[in-house]
Amino acid sequence: MGSLKSNDHDVPEEQMAPMAAYDEIADWYETEFLARTPGDGHPLSLGALLRDLLGEGEGEGSDGDTCLEIGCGTGVHAALVRELGWTPVGIDLSERMLRHARGRLPVAQADAERLPMRDESVPAVIAMMVHTDMPGYPAVLREATRVLQPGGTFVHIGVHPSFCGGFADFSDREAVVIRPGYLDSGYWTKESWTNKGVRDKVGAMHRPLPELLHAFLDAGLQLDRFAEGGAPTPLVLAVRATKPQPTGTAPA
């Protein structure tokens, strides 16, 4: 089982803004935003995607079944991770979000670009709706690869880069209009189609789909499966990737 430890590294300046923003909205997120969500703790009903891509662990409490959630927020996905037979642990930058998470799973306040875990220490890592919060997501993927055991699973579930962002006009949900801006890379915006969600409050980083997928490959992950969620236009893109076994090593 991977162990969490304290992290003495300074938080990068580009990550301070989202951390502070989530500190400011933590109570609203827990008491208002989540209160109007389905049972899986998210308005986009992510449970089915996570269940399908993460799969079953060996049973909570058994050796080697730890599932690390990067950017766990208030820990709303921990119950499903346990139901699937994994032992959830989480990290997040926002102390105020973690105040709500501590009753749901073991947590540590840490920078996702410097995970406080040993090399090859966990069999599974998940990132749920957080890549747009992380300007350094390619570095986060490299860290996830570092802490994963060979053959371990990484599950990314995030807003769909092709259909969600400041460039997307959702005035008509049956006919979403993609304005100029999708092809631009690496910009931060608070522009959102609704003032009742998270993005207009904390902003989001945009990367086009090819750039996002290349970041997985550049981190050394092998892409295994893909899924989309939301209708009639996909709002969520899910990816399952694996850390390859060393060459010449048979799977355990």
User: Describe the biggest sheet?
Assistant: 7 strands, mixed
Q: What is the CATH superfamily label of one domain?
A: Vaccinia Virus protein VP39
Give the C-alpha Rg.
17 Å
Task: Tell the overall outline.
Answer: globular
- Quaternary organisation of the protein chains: single chain
Span from first to last CA? 16 Å
Q: Using DSSP, what is the number of strands? A: 11
The CATH architecture of one domain is 3-Layer(aba) Sandwich
Question: In which range does the helix fraction lie?
Answer: 25-40%
Calculate the mean pLDDT score and round it: 86
* Strand order in the largest sheet: 3-2-1-4-5-11-10
Strand percent estimate = 15-25%
The H-and-E topology, N to C, reads as HHEHEHEEHEEEEHEHEE
In the CATH hierarchy, what is the class of one domain? Alpha Beta
* Helix/sheet category: alpha/beta
In a few lines, what is going on in this structure?
The protein has 252 residues and is an alpha/beta fold. The chain has helices spanning 13-33, 47-54, 78-83, 95-101, 137-147, 199-202, 209-218, and strands at residues 66-70, 87-92, 107-109, 122-128, 148-159, 168-169, 177-178, 187-189, 204-206, 222-229, 236-242.
